[in-house]
Write a structure and sequence with these properties.
2 domains; 28% strand; binds P-hydroxybenzoic acid; globular; eight-stranded mixed beta sheet; alpha+beta; binds 8-demethyl-8-dimethylamino-flavin-adenine-dinucleotide
Length: 385
């Protein structure tokens, strides 16, 4: 069996890459260890940069996104019992869109299958060779080999691609907290996202639709989810979002509940021989800046361009520049995500002095147009080179 590009992982990075390559007449096979239902329902990201929505629309998979995505022009920072709006569009001329990762994955799977694409679910890659290029995978009780010209490692943080890169340099930071995220069948209590910094810890109010809310709470890193029955979650959210003006949090049935550790991680370089890492396989950001999925999308746009040039002209110039081109963007997003995270969360080890500095910085971002513009241009996303 042979294809031009073997793609390991059928998350947003792998599926979008396969779609972009198909538009350029390049064959690929996507190997995904989980089943279709699992990848289409894994609750994760929700906030898309304008560059991400533009890329989906321009490549012909934006129809439902345009119908159901919720375009946002601002966000709220809430602290000291009051809200402070950051007018993202007013400051940058750009917008962001709430459209869940689950829906992007569904749209991409449907489109690839409609175009005759080859996605193999329940096909777990167990070995790969970046020089001979080939991948070995297990599925349906059999072990098979797929030969290819290039391998795209789009298999997320726990995949097999990154460990196959020799001499990798890694950079990481673990945070002394995690996020407890819930999905609730209730009308959102806000039109724009609320990022709340409170002495009890950080909280985020996001949404999925006019009838579904998505909320997050800062919790200790090793927290047991059993310690958080629904009533406790709602009480804690209400306490952290409380304002002096009678704002009310709508409560409803919790339909999904999970704890996510917070981590910053970068692996360099993102290439070894004919293997290219993309998305969470190469880097992780804490979700506070809403950058992870957007970085996965910009990586595969850069990779698809480079592979297109290679097949059209034989030149490997863009492939040779792939890792550096991605890493410049990755490190900017790493800094922004780290900055948003440390600005808004309560570090249990922080001194009173550090808490005062944090509050001074929040006041500054809320009152200085220059500081707010810096937050806004990073949040809406910098242009893809
Ligand atoms: P994924 O989505 O992890 O997909 C990797 C796929 O590879 C498969 N796989 C394998 N397949 C075959 N063989 C193997 N050996 C394999 N090993 C693994 C896995 O089953 C999986 O299907 O990585 P990808 O495609 O790089 O996409 C990255 C995004 O999923 C991630 O960055 C975002 O979800 C991060 N994120 C957010 N990003 C944003 O841009 N905006 C947000 O608002 C946002 N919010 C979030 C988030 C992530 C969160 N969690 C749960 C980590 C909120 C949360 C709570
Ligand atoms: C989400 O809607 O899941 C979401 C939004 C913004 C973030 C993180 C997650 O920063």
């Amino acid at each position: 069996m042979r294809t031009q590009v073997a793609i390991i992982g059928g998350g947003p990075a792998g599926l979008l890459l396969s779609h972009l390559l198909h538009l350029q007449g390049i064959d690929s096979v996507v190997l995904e260890s989980r089943d279709r239902d699992y990848v289409e329902h894994r609750q994760r990201a929700g906030m898309l940069e304008q560059g991400t929505t533009d890329a989906l629309r321009d490549s012909g998979v934006g129809e439902r996104l345009d119908r159901e995505g919720l375009v946002h022009h601002g966000l709220e920072l809430r602290f000291g019992g009051a809200g402070h709006r950051i007018p993202l569009t007013g400051l940058t001329g750009r917008t962001v869109t709430v459209y869940a990762q689950t829906e992007i994955v569904k749209d991409l799977v449907a489109r690839r299958l409609a175009d005759g694409g080859d996605i193999r679910f329940e096909a777990e890659v167990v070995d790969l060779d970046a020089s001979a290029p080939r991948v070995t995978y297990r599925g349906g009780g059999e072990t098979r080999t797929l030969d290819c010209d290039y391998i795209a490692g789009c298999d997320g943080f726990h995949g097999v691609s990154r460990p196959a890169v020799p001499g990798l340099r890694t950079f990481s930071r673990d945070y002394p907290f995690a996020w407890l995220g819930i999905l609730a069948g209730v009308r959102p209590s806000t039109e724009e996202l609320i990022y709340a910094s409170h002495d009890r810890g950080f909280a985020l109010h996001s949404l999925r639709s006019p009838t579904v809310s998505r909320l997050y709470l800062q919790v200790p890193p090793d927290e047991d989810i059993a310690a958080w029955p629904d009533a406790r979650i709602w009480d804690e959210l209400a306490a952290r979002f409380a304002t002096g003006d009678g704002w009310k949090l709508h409560e409803g049935p919790v339909t999904d509940k999970a704890i996510t550790p917070m981590r910053s991680f970068v692996a360099e370089p993102m290439r070894h021989d004919r293997l290219f890492l993309a998305g969470d396989a190469g880097h992780i950001v804490p979700p506070t800046g809403a950058k992870g999925l957007n970085l996965a999308v910009s990586d595969v746009i850069i990779l698809a361009r480079a592979l297109t040039e290679r097949y059209a002209t034989g030149s490997e110039t863009l492939l040779d520049g792939y890792s550096d081109a991605c890493l410049r963007r990755v490190w900017r997003a790493e800094h922004f995500s780290y900055w948003m995270t440390t600005l808004l969360h309560v570090d249990p080890a922080a001194t009173a002095f550090e808490r005062r500095l944090q509050r001074a910085h929040l006041d500054y971002v809320a009152s200085s147009e220059a500081a707010a513009t810096s937050l806004a241009e990073n949040y809406v996303g910098l242009p893809i080179e």
